[in-house]
Amino acid sequence: MYKIKLSILLFVKDVFSPLNVIPVEEIKAFAIELKRFLDRTPIRLSLYLPGSILEAMVKYCPQEIAWIKARLQEGRLELVGGGYYDSMSPFFPSRLQSLQLKTHRQYITKIFQVEPSGYFNSSMVWEIGMTELLAHFDFKYTLVNDDSLQFALGRTTPVSGWFTTEDKGTMIRLISVSTGLSKAFTEEEPSIFEEEIQKLPKNDKCVVVSLEVPLDNALTITSFFTSLEQKLSLLDHQTWTVAHVIEQQMTEGKVNLVSALGSNLGLPAGAHSCRELLIRRPEINFLHKSFLAVHRYALEKLSGNDLEKIEEMLLPLMAPFFYRDLYGGKGMKNPGVRWKAHKDLIGVFLAVEELESFDGLRIEVSDYLLDGQKQVWVNNSEISMLIDHMRGAYLRSLNYKPSGVNLFNAMRDDGDISLGFLDHFVPNKINSVSGFQSAVEDRSGALTYPCDYELKREPEAVHLLFHSEQVFSSPETKHIFHVDKHFSLLSKHAAFDLDYRLTNSTYLDFKGYFGTELELGMRGFDSKTQLMKINGTKISLMQDVPILYPNAETFELQDRLLAWFIRFNFSQATRILVSPIMGMNQFASPLAVQGLRIFFFWDVELSALESSSLGMKIKLSKRRVLL
Amino acid sequence: MKSDWMDILVDDAGDEVVITLRGTFGLLQLPGVREKLEMLIKGPGCFFFLNIESAHFIDDAYLELFLNLLNRIKKQNAMLVFLSSKEEHRNYFSRFSHVLELYDNRKSFRRSGLLKQLKQVGINYSKQTGLRLSPGVAIALFVLLLGWFVTLFSIVYIQNKEILEQQAQIISLENQKKRSIQEIERLKSSLGSLQHLGLVVDSTTSHAFGSIRDWVGYLELLENSRREN
Hints:
CATH superfamily of the largest domain in chain B: STAS domain
Largest interface: A-B, 20 and 17 residues
Helix content of chain B: 55-70%
Distance between the termini of chain A: 74 Å
Largest sheet of chain A: 12 strands, antiparallel
Shape of chain B: rod-shaped
Shape of chain A: elongated
Strand content of chain B: 15-25%
CATH topology of the largest domain in chain B: Transcription Regulator spoIIAA
Oligomer: heterodimer
């Protein structure tokens, strides 16, 4: 039997629910199983529970909470602190991070009359910039995966024990968590566990493991604790709480430039920081920037209790499932998670507007996406949109506030961003549906040159004009077009007009197609709750078959479940290409519907210096009958 | 595009337009700022607020730009107000403090004088509607309208008072009627036992009062016959 000193940290993760349903039965089962496990065994444990799980336990399992409180006083249990919604610190402003830590700490103190001395986040993300914040809240230690420490120290041999790190005159202890042994505890195969045990250094140092208790259903919780007990029975173990490691062992030294990538974030092994999520997954990046924009806006317009109220509303939007590149209910690759994130964020934004008592039209030219360039953000009481005029004046978002949806919320597998009203020139050689589909999908003729912007204010409307010179190259020719793109927005309605004026600036005739593409974040098309009409006729859409419709005058799209309806009225007969955006799911086959691509296009024949005008009117409402 | 170093925010609420500038503004940014501000003030609005709280001006040329803007806005019969609570901006505007109005925020501007703001609104609406009123006529119209309202409210008040008095009278009469009925019932019941013994003859059941059921009805009958006569 292998002799080992062990510190086990058990944690649970917040469960994603589109309708904020609390998994009461699972939480009850967890509380009961934890109590049984500790009653059966003489083990000491550390425990991290996010605020929402703690709240549910206090509400539904008061006896178990009283029992945990007694074990905390005995020293058999240790509660570890963290963010109230288990957020990843490096992503967010310190002000909100402080509020996360403060709220969690205050809740633990209120219920259990203890103050946590350790900090933990289930994503296991660590950056040196967090030191000052954690030291401010009097945290003594945090947990970091041993492979990150190994990389920072340049060692190939296993790392254990604890290190110190300092930044801006503050210090915190980094306790090494054995990644291999943590993983082996969750493996069903006993040989893997035994293999990992053999790899451990032969000394009397305490090995720290962090284990997630899966809250999938009551059965998995029971089998988790049974399996843990079985594996522990294979060892001659002494168990301690994680805080005890610092008291029992001397420091292993100092390490400063350690950056823990985190686990279960959907990042490849080559990534060095959790911030790479913002680069690799544009949907996460856009949510993150929208979150920061709402917070900036609240800071600028509100103060005192109003600001506090908004910041509290923002806290759930820092939950890790909104910032993981994962499928299912675990990350932003799930359309439901994206929908929920934007719905909640729009809700917070509406609350800011209500507290500010502003009812008008707001236009902001600023670096909304924090990418070093300006974007134009337009907002009235019903809709808001972000126009990226430095890349062809396409829409990066279109939020319809009464329904709480961001319509341009699809996801592309190629890692490119999904957007609306991205203009394309398509050569006239193409004459098949698949040809149009691939030309649009490849974005080879997309017009993404920078535009100059102009704002014109009128009593009932605001006009945003974007002027640019756009280049369209085909193997034979190169054309330069002067493109005027004109958005007219009403001050208080969910409606706007989009007009184009194209001028062929080259001394060569042009014959081809001009069109604009939208990537809507639709659910998989379901004829019971969704509706598509072209010229008033219902169109049924097969799961993955694109359709091309000529001579359209109106195009309507409705989602009754999410309560939004959009109608396009064209100034002249328009061709419409509708095709689902298919993406991979966890089984690596492109079967998951990640959105709906719509391409409105027209035949364009322009001789040298000739101009042509095109346009459409767009209206939004919650229900079709209301428009 | 050096002008794009700056951030612009426009809050357009009809009569009030707040333009917020953020960034550092030197000579290089001047043409861009001029172009953007001139573009933004062209539209509707009665009060144009230029929020410069987060702006840092490193060249005096902007004062000239602001004076030009003020002239343009005055020509549109609107008003230009600068918003900032910073000492840096007070010093920057000190040369033209008698022309360029600088307030801490919109609240402090509102507290600065109602008449001035009303006058501005008046000028703006007269431009929009084409109606021009001299202050004397405006005051006379205002007094006339006020008089109308006061008279109207007095009439409504007096009539309301009369109705309330009449209602109170009706209620007291009804109460009196109920009390009388109760009193008569009580007297009847106290005489009941004597009537059974034949000691008292009920005069109300005699021929003269045969058709009368109760005393109150009788009194009403008398009153009606009196009125008819």
